[in-house]
TrEMBL record:
Protein's name in the database: Sec translocon accessory complex subunit YajC
Subcellular locations according to the entry: Cell membrane
Quaternary context: Part of the SecDF-YidC-YajC translocase complex. The SecDF-YidC-YajC translocase forms a supercomplex with SecYEG, called the holo-translocon (HTL).
Presence of the UniProt keyword Nucleotidyltransferase in the record: no
Classification via SMART domains: YajC
Keywords: Cell membrane, Membrane, Protein transport, Translocation, Transmembrane, Transmembrane helix, Transport
Length: 116
């Protein structure tokens, strides 16, 4: 009763445009997925590949840092586990995946600049 013919025409004209929105939105979704791949997925897979290489190159007498922050020297390497000496005469068995960093033998500790 209160609807004017102009409102009725605008509502009917909006329906065919809905199909065109999908065609304009599809390239944007492809660009968004591409950006997500290059900023999230690819760096994570490269980091995992680098970690796997580091773990396979692990050898005896390497100094390692565990993900918990514990630092020790590798005394024995097995398939899935490593024996680490955390103190003189104290050996701990650790799963290889928990090794966060392998330090180069003889690497100096970082300087504490707070005293300078």
């Amino acid at each position: 009763m209160f609807a004017t013919p102009a409102f009725a025409q605008a509502a009917g004209a909006a329906a065919p445009a809905a199909g065109g929105d999908l065609l304009t939105m599809l390239p944007m979704m492809i660009v968004l997925f591409g950006a997500m791949y290059f900023f999230m997925i690819r760096p994570q897979s490269q980091r995992a590949k680098q970690h796997k290489t580091m773990i396979t190159a692990l050898k005896r007498n390497d100094t390692v840092v565990l993900s918990s922050g514990l630092i020790g020297k590798v005394t024995r390497v097995e398939d899935a586990e490593v024996m680490i000496e955390v103190a003189t005469g104290v050996n701990v068995r650790v799963v290889k995946a928990l090794i966060a960093e392998v330090r180069v033998k003889g690497e100096p500790a970082p300087a504490n600049d707070a005293k300078s």
